[in-house]
Amino acid sequence: MDSLYIHIPFCNRICAYCDFNKFLIKNQPVDEYVDMLIKELSFLEDKNLKTIYVGGGTPTALNMNQLEKLLKYIKENFNVSDEYTFEANPDELTTEKISLLKDYGVNRVSLGVQTFNNKLLEVLGRTHNFDDIYTSINHMEKIGLDNYSIDLMYNLPGEEMSDIEDSLKNIQILKPKHISWYSLIIEKHTIFYNKIKSGQLNIASSEVEGERYHRVMQGLKDIGYHQYEISNFSSKPEFESSHNKTYWKNNEYYGAGAGSHGYVNGQRYFNVKPVPHYINRMKEDTNAVKDIHTLSKKEMYEEEMFLNLRLNKGLRINQFKEKYGVSLFDIYQNVIDKHVTSNNLEIRNGYLRLTEQGKVVGNDVFIDFLID
Ligand code: SF4
Hints:
globular; 372 residues
């Protein structure tokens, strides 16, 4: 096993677009949650890993004692040979917390910036502002935890192209090692979804979304960032996220914490979501798995395509045969021909990959890889 994802499902405020498994931290049994999370981690078989990613929710919403307890357990019980990331919100990343993360071996921070525009941050329901972004980054640099990624979103309600230009300018000043820049997806059961349904909020058309995506890709390229995935960019190849590449390469990983997912021995598993259920389950058991899904061959093929095609490099054609004992072209010849002809896919150096045009219409391409 190469990778472990750990979920901290608490936030200080709930953002208007968020459909993750998260709960307002106030009055939550956070100490108990951390204890049960540690119990779940203790039962994982393989403790020698390449990557750990602690996400949420907001891991930095934990107080110093809770954070230290978790960090200490991980340090004393796991070997992480490559990348150890914590997600953080800019306004919660105090110097004390940064030092604590660094002291316990965290070597990468994924900072939830979203946008540099204070008005848009307010619309999103974020707790931080522009100044918090710069302050937290200055602190990280001073303390020496300077391998950070910034998470951004485009296609926000009320966003103009000038906001993307503004983000690009800030990126030029800050020079983060890594950038994730996703299009906002409106998910059901979110405040944004209800507002759009009732006409209180507008979201741009898919044409405008495509233009913005083009600008994000071109703008980052112009200032020296290399795109290695549909929405991910790094200043140098060594700063690509090893942990996230585990997912995109369709490799297996552990998931721990309420609502987390894992992929072990060809089975995808899902933990119970609500915090009290998770705690009660973990009090009596060695895991909190709610469902296990054994992938059929068809599902394995489909996932191999969707995930690997997200990478700029694409899917190594021989890898498909090595993994599944059948040629990619025996399964997908027609789909590949169709999208190569329409210039959404190309075959180069033994890899099948999306073209620049294909990245913009990626979902339409992926749908065709579903097997009837
Ligand atoms: S901080 Fe992150 S996890 Fe929490 S509500 Fe906002 S987007 Fe969701």
